[in-house]
Amino acid sequence: MLRPRPARGFLPVPGTPRPSPVPEVLRRAPEVRSKRFRFPWVTMATSFEWPWQYRFPPFFTLQPNVDTRQKQLAAWCSLVLSFCRLHRQSSMTVMEAQESPLFNNNKLQRKLPMESIQIVLEELRKKGNLEWLDKNKSSFLIMWRRPEEWGKLIYQWVSKSGQNNSVFTFYELTNGDDTEDEEFHGLDEATLLRALQALQLEHKAEIITVSDGRGVKFF
Amino acid sequence: MQGGERPRVSEQRIWKDPLPPSLFPPHSPQLQAAAPPPPGGSRGAAGPPGGATPSQCGRRPVWRLRGRGERDWAEPGPGPELRRRRRRRRRRVMDRFVWTNGLLEINETLVIQQRGVRIYDGEEKIKFDAGVLLLSTHRLIWRDQKNHDCCIAIPLSQIVFIEEQAAGIGKSAKIVIHLHPASSNKDPGPFQSSKSSYIKLSFKEHGQIEFYRRLSEEMTHRRWENMPVSQLMQRKSGQEPGRIRAVGIVGIERKLEEKRKETDKNISEAFEDLSKLMVKTIRFKSYLLSMGIANPVTRETHGSGTHYHMQLAKQLAGILQVPLEERGGIMSLTEVYCLVNRARGMELLSPEDLVNACKMLEALKLPLRLRIFDSGVMVIELQSHNEEEMLASALETVSEKGSLTSEEFAKLVGMSVLLAKERLLLAEKMGHLCRDDSVEGLRFYPNLFMTQS
Q1: Where are the beta strands (DSSP E) in chain A?
Q2: Can you say whether residue B226 is alpha, beta or left, with left for phi > 0 and alpha for psi between -120 and 50 degrees?
Q3: Do B188 and B130 meet the contact criterion of CB atoms below 8 Å apart?
């Protein structure tokens, strides 16, 4: 049963379509509140802290030495995840990725070749941070935290606030006032879905359909 | 033709045989008077007046029409006395044959044999009726089928010219063999003298085509000249050294061959003196030593195979010691190849032999060894040389400069680019360096992935 919620201005009217993939105005990132860019990194590139490898030219060549390669790929994975986290990029196409400053260092005049990008993405997928959204492997979902980790966090909060055996909508979890201080506040729906699916597997939650979307019941 | 109109059978037969004009001496009146018909010529060509036909000997006109038993009844021929004397005087072909036991000599090989062959002396049938004809590389042997002891042979060197005669009605195919006159010193044969200078072999049981082919092959190759069988045969083939009859193309070829052999002999004789001189003069030897190698290991001195490669390896170890030390203990195999061949001068080494010899260096516990890198590059290095030690210094050099390409590194260290690249690649393999591959080229950096967290 849905708990009665106070009416708030910013809550969307039930029945309106969900917003486009353009990232929403977020309270946590006031500087972009008014700006809606398709590629937010244009403004945020300067604030992002690039790791030392980004300025090391061999970083952009796949190393033949096995041990060196392992270190290199690990560095790439962490870079991709931190980049996507900061820029709130949950999904991307491979073409976008190729053009982004993530794999292109203009100052150094180096770019990671396509085959190596594929290898990095494959590595992320194996780790559980990436999921291909289509069969052609042209676009992917990137989760800087693995779905299981998200699920754990959500369940922790639910248990902590004593709201077990209650039902929430997806929107409530990500954009509700109660979750404002939580890490998973502002999480994109796809990641949330996967996180809840992971919880479902652990029998800690169950995804249900409610009148204005989807909801979840925690046990 | 005097007298009657009766056509002479043998006369017609004569005109069927194409006779090369070169058989006749150039100024024989017979030739001028009556040129024989061209080979395969028309039957309709008129014969010479009087029906005279010169004999193959070309000495004087002989009435070949006169076979034994064939008489021109119109003409008063010479009496029996004269005939007998004439017969003895005339050189004939069957006297070239010698009795033989039919066994082949050591260098002689059998080419082909054919049964059912009959020999004709000129146009005449003789007692050699049915026999097996054997062609060897040196001789033509005929053995009687009924009486195996009766075996005659003629050396192939006696043959001037051969031709085929197709089979006709009631006649089997024949091969006509024109022969040289017999020498005086030959072994006894079945006939003391012979009427004509050609014989015919009649193939009653066929096989003439193949036999003719093989015989002409043997005549072309003249293998009996290269493989002297016995003194007997040699004597026969060596007879009349000055009298090599230039008979058509065969003669020209023979002359050329003679000339070539002469030249060859002269050259080898000349060089024999030179080599003797070279060996004896100490000055020459020391000059060779200063240039490089005095007595190179060659296939002549040491044969081929493992022993050769072993000796070669030992010699290489001797030559390469100093150059290797000059070049820092390591040299690529191509450099070695150039150096060694330059030192050897005349007796050059093939790349294959060099590689095989180098592979044995380690096994023979010589102070050098062959090393093959992952990329396939082969180098010779001193046993005392340790590439791994060099890597530490390479890393230092690269770290100093931040990053280096193989060319820059080669220049700095003073080694060839190939070896410099190999060293950098080895350092990368060991994890000391990492690579930066871009449009600018291949650069090597110190491996900060490992050293920096």
Answers
A1: 91-93, 104-105, 110-111, 130-132, 139-142, 167-169, 205-210, 213-218
A2: alpha
A3: no
- Give the best-scoring range by mean pLDDT among A38-47, A181-190, B398-407: B398-407
Q: What is the pLDDT of residue B14?
A: 45
Total CB pairs under 8 A between chain A and B: 46
Mean pLDDT across chain B: 76
The number of residues making up chain A comes to 219
CA distance B354 to B312: 8
Element of type H or E holding A39: none
Q: Residue A71: its chain B contacts at CB < 8 A? A: 449-450
- In tens, the pLDDT along B18-76 reads 555 556 555 555 444 444 444 444 444 444 444 444 444 445 554 455 555 555 454 55
| Domains of chain A by start residue, with CATH | 52-142 (1.10.10.570), 147-218 (1.10.10.10)
Per DSSP, the three-state class of A206 is: strand
CB proximity list for B319: less than 8 A, separation 6 or greater: B292, B293, B339, B340, B343
- pLDDT tops 60 at residue B363: yes
CA of B181: how far to CAs of A195, B58, B159, B317, B421, in Å? 116, 12, 10, 66, 79
Q: Is A10 on the interface with B (CB under 8 A)?
A: no
Cα gap A45→A39, rounded to integer Å: 10
| Cα–Cα nearest to B392, from B343, B427, B366 | B427
> What separation in angstroms does the CA of A159 have from each of A148, A206, B48, B268?
16, 15, 140, 109
Alpha-carbon span A179 to A187, nearest angstrom: 11
- Nearest Cα to Cα of residue A75 among B141, B285, B434: B434
User: What one-character DSSP code corresponds to residue B347?
Assistant: S
Please work out, in degrees rounded to the nearest 5, the angle formed at the alpha carbon of residue A213 by the alpha carbons of A212 and A216: 120
Flag whether pLDDT at B9 surpasses 70. no
DSSP string, B63-116: -TT--TT---TTS-PPPHHHHHHHHHHS--SGGG-EE------SS--EEEEEEE
Partner A, chain B 149-178, Cβ-Cβ below 8 Å: none
What is the distance between the alpha carbons of residues B443 and A203, in angstroms, rounded to a whole number?
Answer: 54
3-class secondary-structure state, position B142: strand
Whether B128 shows a pLDDT value over 90: the answer reads no
Element of type H or E holding A201: helix A189-201
Angle between helices B306-326 and B351-359 (to 10 degrees): 90
Domain residue limits, chain B = 98-221, 306-450
**3-state DSSP: chain A helix, strand, coil percent, rounded to 5?**
40, 15, 45
Q: Which two tokens mark A108?
A: 């150094």
Question: Which of B375, B399, B437, B439 best tests the A interface by mutation, with the highest count of A CBs <10 A?
Answer: B437
B contacts of A66 (beta carbons < 8 Å): none
For residue B445, which of A72, A189, A118, A160 has the smallest C-alpha distance?
Answer: A72
Position A164 scores a pLDDT of 72
- As its CATH architecture, domain B98-221 has Roll (2.30)
Contact residues, chain A, for B434 at CB < 8 Å: 58, 63, 65, 68
In this prediction the pTM is 0.49
Min Cα separation B315/chain A (Å): 40
Considering the domain delimited by B306-450, tell me its CATH architecture.
Orthogonal Bundle (1.10)
